[in-house]
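Ops channel
N.P.: pipeline sanity check, posting one input/output pair.
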């Protein structure tokens, strides 16, 4: 009797295992697959159906892969075209970058030049103007004189420790000094270095200069550039 009960329980366990196993139906499209053990338990028809599902899924994956490869090839082509354009642009930009770097270096140099100068023993306006860091040209000393008329009465007399302004750049305004006229102003090297261009100053200041032969000390005139 005891042996019969054991056999019955074992049979029931096998049935439960079979039911549990057969209850699982792999859906290949969802990434579900049978293990070797589960596959061996399938009926012939189920095996055939499973193999067909695998074949269909493989075909579909191959089609997707082919599509992706086509898209990848198209993207690679676009990337190659963009890289070619970038290379061309770089080839055009590199000389410009070099020029910009050289220009920036020049700008930095000019920005580093002094705008003030403390007179030392033995110096004159000509000598100061002739220094490389000033104007590198002694004949340009009158600009220093004009910029310091408030403290220099005689350009031949400057004193040790006197602090002089060193004007930089090209002026866009000019304050008329005694004895100046438009031709003289236009002739200054920092203005136009050509007295004949006095008409440019006159045309730009007609609102304040009615007669080009009459300008007054202290009058501020525009210098068009």
């Amino acid at each position: 009797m005891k042996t019969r009960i054991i056999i019955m329980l074992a049979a029931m366990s096998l049935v439960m295992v079979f039911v549990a196993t057969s209850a699982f139906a792999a859906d290949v499209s969802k990434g579900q697959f049978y293990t070797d053990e589960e596959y061996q338990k399938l009926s012939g028809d189920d095996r055939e159906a499973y193999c067909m599902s695998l074949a269909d899924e493989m075909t579909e994956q191959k089609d997707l892969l082919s599509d992706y490869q086509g898209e990848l090839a198209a993207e690679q082509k676009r990337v190659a075209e963009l890289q070619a354009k970038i290379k061309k642009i770089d080839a055009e930009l590199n000389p410009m970058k070099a020029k910009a770097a050289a220009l920036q270096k020049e700008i930095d140099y000019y920005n580093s030049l002094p705008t003030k100068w403390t007179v030392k023993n033995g110096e004159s306006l000509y000598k100061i103007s002739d220094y490389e860091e000033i104007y590198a040209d002694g004949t340009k000393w009158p600009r220093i004189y004009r910029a310091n008329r408030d403290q220099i009465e005689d350009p031949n007399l400057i004193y040790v420790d006197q602090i002089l302004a060193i004007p930089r750049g090209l002026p866009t305004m000019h304050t008329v000094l005694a004895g100046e006229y438009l031709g003289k102003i236009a002739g200054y090297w920092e203005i136009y270095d050509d007295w004949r261009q006095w008409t440019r100053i006159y045309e730009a200041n007609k609102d304040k200069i009615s007669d080009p032969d009459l300008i007054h000390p202290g009058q501020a005139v525009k210098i068009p550039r």
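N.P.: looks fine end to end. Residues 170-225 form a domain with the Membrane-bound Lytic Murein Transglycosylase D; Chain A fold (CATH 3.10.350.10).
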